[in-house]
Predict the structure.
Amino acid sequence: MSVGRALAVALVGLNGHVIEVEADIGQTLPNFILLGLPDASLSEARERIRSAAQNSGIPLSRRKITVNLIPASLPKRGSGFDLAIVMAALEAAGDVRGTGRTVFIAELGLDGRLRPVRGVLPAVLAALAAGHKDVVVAPANVAEGKLVKGVRVRAFECLADVAMDFNADPNNLVRLAGDWKAAAVHDAAEADGGAVERAVDLSEVAGQPVARLALEIAAAGGHHLMMVGPPGSGKTMLAERLPGLLPDLSDGDAMEVTAIQSLEHRGSGLLDLVRRPPYEHPHHSASTAAIIGGGSGIPRPGAASRAHRGVLFLDEAPEFDKRVLDALRQPLESGELVLHRSAGAAAYPARFQLVLAANPCPCGKATGKGINCECTPMARRRYFGRLSGPLLDRVDIQLQVNKVQLSQLADSGPRESSADVAKRVQLARNMAKERLRRWGLVHNAEMTGRILRGPLKMDGKCTALLDRAMGTGVLSARGYDRVLRLAWTVADLQGRERPDSDDVGLALTLRQRGEGL
């Protein structure tokens, strides 16, 4: 008997590593040894695949089976190795042939049925990058796998069908009855049906002209936004409508976002690439692991990575744990999260727009003269003390949202819709993309200080107000650059080639809670 071989994929974050599965059948007493740093769920594959093979009419050899997962130094986890292991063992026994160049990604049920697993999209991408273009998955994962062009992705209902495709003797095989295509469509419909949400529109927001302008500027330039105002002023409504102002994702961004979503569920609902920017709205009791990512073994993505190329909205921001908020400082700068654990390090993209919302104080009544506020000065300082200076320094727009007046609420006149604003946002983004093309950038928020003070430097008359603000200590060096980025976005929305002093003044005002508007 020769050594049987098959291929699988181990995911570390979004990075996939093609694993060579070797199986050898010895001449000693029955045993099943699995080598190559398997975790608990993978170690349990020994019993799953024995039962699956037996119930499929192709029982495994009763002698000693040794399975080695190469490279042995890379930790492997999950049940997605089941099919690769059993195919390698069957090839070693001579029951099947030609499995060594095929990537198998599926879990096995005890009856031999192929069951879906998480992370099929990044796994197929890794297989393609390694030069392997033949992949076998479970029926519920086939639509997700076929999102990757240039790979032949095949689905089989059960182990017997897979074995038959690899030259097994059909006389002894036990196939499962049923239409797997219908079952896969049913599973996808159920997954899609649970995700339907009511569309929200900017026309539903009464009043708040300054906040609407700030939202449009944030959407056009990819800027972070903070809104401070009393309860009921519309902060949450505004934040929920920001994704509706953003354009559809490009092919590359859509592939990244879909790959992250693939890690979060078993993929039965991923029938196409995710084209709309994601929106994450975690509760203020969320832990650092829930926001940043974490968990035992290889860490999983958190809300920050799930919001990649979309919006991360933290309502009641001062109520979040201070450590959670400060953990966002690094991805706000780099657009990536690298999580280190004893089992290894996982890197996830996390280039999102951060939107913070906060009341002016714990009771929410410290507006205007604040005569109705019930909070002590110490309580107010402690409330906003959780929002550290370095975090706020990374937020481009910091806006005071005022209470909606009765006249604004009763106004039945037409209000601008999200579609109308989105058209202006798209035009402004097109201008920025063309201007920044030579540096490989897309949004104004991505411009570095080297670009702002080099090829795109403004003249002294435009930045005079900004220079004075920095000279008096109102702005840091980081804040100075962020105001310049805002000014470029304001100019893009106006269709101008370069910002003027008015654009810089508006950008500085939006940076300082909207004072003067």
